[in-house]
Each structure stands twice: as structure tokens, then as C-alpha cells.
Design goal:
Radius of gyration: 19 Å
Strand content: under 5%
Number of domains: 2
Order of helices and strands: HHHEEHHHHHHH
CATH architecture of the largest domain: Up-down Bundle
Number of helices: 10
Structural class: mainly alpha
Distance between the termini: 8 Å
Shape: globular
Helix content: 55-70%
CATH class of the largest domain: Mainly Alpha
CATH superfamily of the largest domain: GntR ligand-binding domain-like
Low-confidence stretches: 1-9, 235-240
Number of strands: 2
Length: about 240
């Protein structure tokens, strides 16, 4: 659907802001925009074909999600989690998500299981076409979906925030493909949830996250930066 650019209509402005926010979020999660990239308002406004007011609002939304850091007199940059924060994020996930998986196993319906298996199929399809960024994004959505199945709103929001930070951490610190979710790890986890085996689901989630954590090279590293036009070309512009 073509998005109108009439900035005089508040609802249209809100819609445009939401679409820019969503497009940038996906691009960051898929590692098309690397941590540390400067998000210039003028350049983004040109790329998306919207006003700087729309871009500014979208960047504020991303800052609230901790995907972007707005620095006084310097502008907005994709966030760069430190080594210390990287460890803290994964330690938090190792504490929270096993319990969430256990609860999900107690509450999952057949439709929930079907949805999880669809996530896995899409993730593996992305890996097969060597699109590791898309595979990582789908993997994160898989973990959030398990939290939603557990039906604990506060914890789901916390998991969403942790997964978002994890995407940035992996963009900075992964050094090998094993930093992506292992080929069979999610299958085994869904099998346990489908059987209602909460203990096994929790154990599998914990070991899976520990392996992911250990696969990262947690030393300070400078990412390879693409230009915003290269990162967003053809995918995120409104109306395309």
C-alpha cells in the first residue's frame, strides 16, 4: 500500500513514523545496519521520502527500545553494547528464558506448536540461502514467541528487550556461524514443548543459550559499516 506523504494529517504522520521505526528495526536486527552506524536525519528522510519530523520521532522510538543511542550535539547512532553488557544480557536470558520455556510447555496449544515450527522452517530457509541476518532475526522472534505462549506479559516484554540487545551483541561479537541457533536446537525445544515436558524444555533452553553465549568472541571489535543507502536499498522505503 502506498503511504501518503501529507504531513498535515496526524494519523498519517503516526503511520509513517511507525513504518519507518519498523523498517529500521528489521534492518538493525538483520545486521544490514551495523552497531555504531550514524543515523543521519537528512539522509534517512531522503531514503524514506518523509520529513525530518517523522525520522526524529522514529529515532526516539528506537532509542526507547535501546536499539539507538541519541548523543547530544552528535546525533543518533545504532547502539553498541559493551562486553560487560553482552555478558549481562546473556546471563539474564539464561536465567529468565528456561523458566519461560517451562511455562510455555504447560500452556502451548496445537496452533502454538504449528506457529513455532513455521518459525523454524523460515529460519532454516534463510540459512539455506546464506541470509544469516534474516535467520538471526527469525531466531529472535522464535524466542519471543515462546515467551508469548507462556502468557506472561511483563516477562514477554523483558524477553523482547533482551532479544533486541542480543541482536546488536551478535552483530558486534560473533565470529562464526555457530553463533546462530544450532540447526536442531529449536526442533528439540519445540518437541519438548509439544509434549508438555516443561523440565526438558527448560533444560534445552538453558543449554542452548549457554552455547550461544560461549560462541561469541567477547572482545571489543569495530564492525564493518555500510552506508545507510546500501543497508536500506530497495527494502525499507515507504510505499515499496
Amino acid at each position: 500500500m502506498q503511504i501518503t506523504t501529507d504531513r498535515s494529517v496526524p494519523n498519517d504522520r503516526k503511520l509513517q513514523t511507525d513504518e519507518v521505526t519498523a523498517a529500521l528495526t528489521v534492518a538493525i536486527h538483520q545486521h544490514r545496519i551495523a552497531p555504531g552506524t550514524k543515523l543521519g536525519e537528512d539522509e534517512l528522510a531522503e531514503i524514506f521520502g518523509v520529513s525530518r519530523t517523522i525520522i526524529r520521532a522514529a529515532l526516539q522510538s528506537l532509542a526507547h527500545l535501546q536499539l539507538v543511542e541519541v548523543q547530544r550535539n552528535r546525533g543518533a547512532f545504532v547502539a553498541q553494547p559493551s562486553v560487560r553488557e553482552a555478558n549481562e544480557v546473556f546471563e539474564a536470558r539464561e536465567l529468565v528464558e528456561p523458566r519461560t520455556a517451562h511455562t510455555a510447555a504447560m500452556r502451548a496449544t496445537k496452533s502454538d506448536i504449528k506457529r513455532l515450527r513455521k518459525h523454524i522452517a523460515e529460519e532454516h530457509a534463510a540459512l539455506a540461502r546464506s541470509d544469516s541476518g534474516a535467520a538471526l532475526h527469525l531466531s529472535g522472534l522464535f524466542h519471543v514467541e515462546i515467551a508469548r505462549i507462556a502468557d506472561q506479559t511483563t516477562i514477554t516484554r523483558f524477553v523482547e528487550a533482551l532479544v533486541a540487545r542480543s541482536s546488536l551483541i551478535i552483530a558486534l561479537y560473533w565470529r562464526r556461524e555457530s553463533a546462530l541457533c544450532e540447526e536442531h536446537a529449536h526442533h528439540e525445544l519445540v518437541d519438548a514443548i509439544a509434549k508438555g515436558d516443561g523440565v526438558r524444555a527448560g533444560e534445552l533452553m538453558h543449554s542452548h543459550l549457554v552455547r550461544l553465549h560461549n560462541a561469541l568472541d567477547l572482545t571489543e571489535a569495530a564492525p564493518t559499516l555500510l552506508s545507510l543507502k546500501e543497508a536500506l536499498s530497495g527494502r525499507a522505503v515507504l510505499g515499496v
